[in-house]
Amino acid sequence: QVQLVESGGGLVQAGGSLRLSCSASGIIFRINTVGWYRQAPGKQRELVAAIQTYGTTRYADSVKGRFAISRDNAKNAVYLQMNSLKPEDTAVYYCNAAGTLGNPGHYWGQGTQVTVSS
């Protein structure tokens, strides 16, 4: 059974930073594409960042230069470092696995709330 568990969300002021973590059981991250998606109230879920098996990454235009996705193969974990946060980054952030750089896979975490105050 595949389980993805996110952590690291919280409340932060605009301009601040947060680091989200996604740990997994039942699936090996280094041989799968892993992505971070987010969903704000009243909006569709959208891709934030994704990382492929060989390290190729993709970012939403809105987070380029501010967010960085990385993977720790030894810990079977994926991280999202979020800097220079803006109020519009407020959303529930979800970890996703087994998709592609452009589309989500079958496996989702439960989500972690990120709230950026102005």
Describe the protein's architecture and organization.
By secondary structure, the chain is mainly beta. The protein contains no helices and 11 strands. It has strands at residues 3-7, 10-13, 18-25, 34-39, 46-51, 57-59, 67-72, 77-82, 91-97, 107-108, 112-117. The strands form 2 sheets. Strands 2, 4, 5, 6, 9, 10 and 11 form a 7-stranded mixed beta sheet that branches. Strands 1-3-8-7 form a 4-stranded antiparallel beta sheet, with no helix packed on it. The mean pLDDT is 96.
Principal-axes geometry comes out as globular
Ranges where pLDDT stays below 50 over 5 or more residues in a row are none
CA-atom Rg in angstroms: 13 Å
What's the β-strand tally?
11
Written as H for each helix and E for each strand, in order along the chain, the element string is EEEEEEEEEEE
The percent of residues in helical segments reads under 10%
Main β-sheet description:
7 strands, mixed
Strand composition percent: over 45%
Terminal Cα span: 40 Å
Q: Number of helical runs? A: 0
Mean pLDDT metric: 96
Quaternary state of the chains: single chain
Structural class by secondary-structure content:
mainly beta
